[in-house]
Amino acid sequence: MTEKTHEGSTVPHATEASADGAPHVSRPQEYDAILLAGFGGPEGQEDVIPFLRNVTRGRGIPDERLEEVATHYRHFGGVSPINEHNRQLRQALVEELRRRGMDHPVYWGNRNWDPYLEDAVKDAAANGHTRLLAFATSAYSSYSSCRQYREDFARALKETGLEGVVRIDKIRQFFDVPGFVQPFAEGVATALQDFASDGYAPEQIRILFATHSIPTADAERSGPQELELGEGGAYAAQHKAVGAQIMDQLTETGTATPQTQWELVYQSRSGPPSQPWLEPDVCDRIAELPAEGVKAVAVVPLGFLSDHMEVLWDLDNEALEAAADAGLKAVRTPTPGVHQAFVSSVVDLVQERMAAVPPQDRPHVTQLGPWFDVCRPGCCENVRLGFRPAAAGVAP
User: Fold this and answer.
1) Strands (E), the chain
2) Is 80 annotated as a binding residue?
3) What EC number(s) would the UniProt record show (predicted)?
4) Which residues are 37's β-sheet partners?
5) 73 is in an annotated binding site
6) 143 is in an annotated binding site
């Protein structure tokens, strides 16, 4: 369903509370179910190339080149851990909802592999659940981590013929929600304590907050353009704000010191050499650290919800190998996974949206929050593709 907003544009497929296009909803809204939206991953060797074809659809990449990436999956038996993590997350969300007396079912669908979002939406509608509140498994603002999921919702509704029948809203980006940040802070604290026990001085330690690199042009268009968040757009600004908050928190408790340095690094670049992507690369930075007097490094997967392939291969394999080559003591800290604080925060966001909690009362740990319930017009454009139909945001 499409309705007019106060901005003269539209919020496709929205519930009544979100249809006016306001950044934060002000009307309470009931939902029938929760929609867990994931990236998807292969679950056997025979799935790997078909999965990678899905991921790269429309880009004309031959199977020979896909096979180069496939080696990462084949190293783990052709199985990405991401689907199992989402099964665990779905179950944890169901249990937390029930603990709070909420009987909302949680439907799970992926962008690139079974179970697909189209099937999840069809199952929900078949069960009479037509008002869905979506939770996408990515915390930050960018095309691939927010808008593309919103495009997935619109595509799923169109391909299932459920436009005008099923409505989909989406909880706000949760990069600075306390329960998302807490597991990372705990991991950094443990790493710093272990390094100190091994005799490393604060100035010999470097904290590298790692996230997926994206094309620089897309990064600059991440988030609402009127915010003018500088180089890297909202995507870089959000990561840096969370990293700074974690280090400030640990300094206040005495776990870190002002001499403990940190920085944001990037990983998993996949574009052509001619296309600028966000830098520096995590392995490149690790190689440079010994010359800066660093002897121990903690790699913090700040951009990731769980230990999926980009964590297991790009960090646990490549980054830690780079640290060994550089003669550095190194550790990779945990992702949130199904940490109880994180699961509780997701359900908090569900209840926040249902109750239309005023923005000033919403939990957040950086000055960038709380982020928007309804994505703004022109938010997170893909330079190559432009603006395709998307749910849960004001149409540009």
Assistant:
1) 33-38, 106-110, 131-136, 167-170, 205-212, 261-267, 296-300, 329-332
2) yes
3) 4.99.1.9
4) 109, 136
5) no
6) no
